[in-house]
Design a protein that fits this description.
Distance between the termini: 90 Å
Number of helices: 4
Order of helices and strands: HHEHEEEH
Number of strands: 4
């Protein structure tokens, strides 16, 4: 019986924890930046053309990024995509009056990559050996 009363008391305490938040109507705020998601970088991420190249040869580059972190600034509405190792960020703020950093400059475009891959596949098929005829 004591165990049941203790369990009921614990449940009542836990149920009361969220009551203050519901009463005020305010959600708990963790900080200025809100995470949207973490994504794998596409081929185009490594083809971004940053404004300056790092002087330190050991510094991570866009090719080294294994994740792209996307977040939004809750005060300004600016959306940022940042590489996890290079620290390079592309920003977009559709509500600002200034020119945004997006669209980003690329060294090659997706259409260029697709054309190069298609040409490579055609070359590979053209150089393939002819199948042997069945000998009797």
């Amino acid at each position: 019986m004591k165990i049941h009363l203790a369990a009921i008391g614990m449940l009542m305490c836990l149920a009361g924890c969220s009551k203050a938040e519901e009463a005020t109507g305010e959600a708990q705020h963790q900080g200025r930046y809100v995470g949207i998601g973490i994504y794998s970088p596409s081929k185009l991420w490594s083809l971004l053309k940053p404004a300056g190249s790092p002087k330190d040869k050991t510094a991570a580059t866009l090719d080294d990024d294994s994740h792209v972190i996307v977040l939004v600034d809750s005060k300004t509405g600016e959306v940022r995509q940042c590489g996890n190792l290079s620290g390079y960020c592309v920003r977009m703020d559709p509500w600002s009056g200034s020119l945004p950093a997006a669209p980003a400059s690329l060294t090659k475009h997706a259409a260029d990559l697709a054309a190069a891959e298609a040409a490579e596949e055609t070359t590979t098929v053209a150089n393939a050996a002819e199948p042997m005829s069945n000998a009797r």
